[in-house]
TrEMBL record:
Keywords: Membrane, Signal. It comes from the Bacteria. It comes from Halobacteriovorax marinus. The keyword Signal applies. InterPro entries: Gram-neg_bact_OMP, Gram_neg_porin_domain, Porin_dom_sf. It is found in: Cell outer membrane. Residues 1-21 form the signal peptide. This is Porin domain-containing protein.
Length: 372
């Protein structure tokens, strides 16, 4: 058995001021795969009269994989977000690149993913920890933008990464995924016991105590270029320290159906979601919602891509629908001069309205991502 010393600085790309610990770990080069992953991304963001330079989901991670039998592989994955600018990160969570407030005050890093898994050709993959949920397997069809999006699917609810509810990067979760060829199935159990503060500038001072949950998804792919998916998730919870808060049960439930088709250089995806007590508006009201997302992309060349999209989230209550609604269009383009470098620009034409009667501003962002 060989031994290698590894310097740990919070993980890769951590600031030089981080404490350095030296750990001695067993290492077998013949059967262990070690892979470092991550990206650095920043963009210039404009909304209304404000323009700022912000981080756009920078992160670093490591993947360790080892065969433990002829049929079973064990894997550990850890991924941590960090902020390369002085301002807060972009407050969207769309696709697998977005995080919100990824470096909270006093915390230079934030855990995005942390799980262990066991993969078998016969029995599928069993994974334990903070990981992408069964629900997101389906909602990811339309979650393909660089700056905006991801607000009509119910994946990233309550101004979070969907970790507590189990719809995004699910916390305290156990997921079993099975690949049956044309059919892919995921079953999820979440053992979540704890309170989550609802981050809202107007209706602060209450929290949600989660009490476990479950989810599942099925994806049917009859052709390489055609996919259909359905996902369902439920999280049990209790509202703590709330006054004048509107909700009608002790559970969050959301269901999504989605389809994706690719024809040559064109890709189109559509999603529709229904949820109960799963979304919160700018006044702190929890509501039942209906959502839609559209993504349409054109791969003009190996390096250039153009795309458009649409996001919509409306309350089920028609009377309340007149006061609050999220609805916007997305227009964007990306260019890859190198396989590890992406330049991108996106604009958002926003028709959203808030519960206080105000309207949302249009916005745009342009940035660059380096993947390592």
């Amino acid at each position: 058995m060989y031994k290698a010393k590894v310097n740990v600085m919070g993980m890769v790309l951590m600031v030089s001021t981080a404490a350095i610990a030296e750990i001695e770990i067993p290492f077998r080069p013949d059967d262990v795969t070690v892979k470092f992953t991550g990206k650095v991304s920043a963009l210039i963001y404009n909304s209304g009269s404000q323009t700022s330079l912000i981080d756009n989901g920078s992160r670093a991670g490591v993947i360790l994989e080892r065969s433990i039998t002829e049929d079973i592989d064990a894997l550990f994955r850890g991924e941590w977000a960090f902020n390369i600018t002085d301002s807060d990160s972009h407050d969207q969570f769309n696709d697998k690149h977005k995080i919100s407030n990824n470096t909270p005050s006093g915390k230079p890093f934030k855990t995005r993913l942390g799980y262990i898994s066991f993969r078998s050709k016969k029995f599928g993959t069993l994974s334990i920890g903070k990981q992408w949920s069964a629900y997101s397997d389906v909602t990811g069809f339309t979650d393909q933008f660089n700056v905006f999006g991801g607000e009509g699917s119910g994946t990233y609810n309550f101004n979070s990464d969907g970790g507590a509810s189990g719809t995004g990067r699910a916390e305290n979760s156990v997921i079993h995924r099975i690949d049956l060829g044309k059919v892919k199935i995921a079953v999820q159990a979440q053992f979540k016991e704890g309170e989550e503060l609802v981050e809202d500038p107007i209706a602060s001072g209450y929290s949600i105590k989660y009490q476990n949950g479950y989810g599942a998804s099925v994806i049917y792919q009859p052709l390489k270029a055609l996919r259909f998916g359905v996902a369902h998730n439920r999280a049990n919870y209790d509202i703590q320290n709330a006054s004048n808060l509107q909700f009608d049960s002790d559970k969050q439930v959301t269901t999504a159906i989605s389809t994706s088709v690719s024809l040559g250089q064109f890709t189109f995806a559509y999603l529709y979601s229904i949820n109960e007590n799963h979304e919160v508006d700018n006044s702190g009201t929890i509501f039942d919602g209906r959502g839609q997302e559209i993504y349409a992309g054109y791969q003009a060349s190996q390096r250039a891509k153009y795309y458009v999209g649409f996001n919509k989230l409306t309350p089920k209550d028609l009377a309340y629908h007149d006061a609050y609604e999220k609805q916007y269009y997305i227009v964007g383009a990306s260019y890859n001069p190198h396989k590890k470098v992406t330049f991108y620009a996106e604009g958002k034409i926003d028709n959203s309205s808030y519960s206080d009667g105000s309207k949302a501003d249009n916005a745009m962002g342009a940035g660059v991502t380096y993947t390592f």
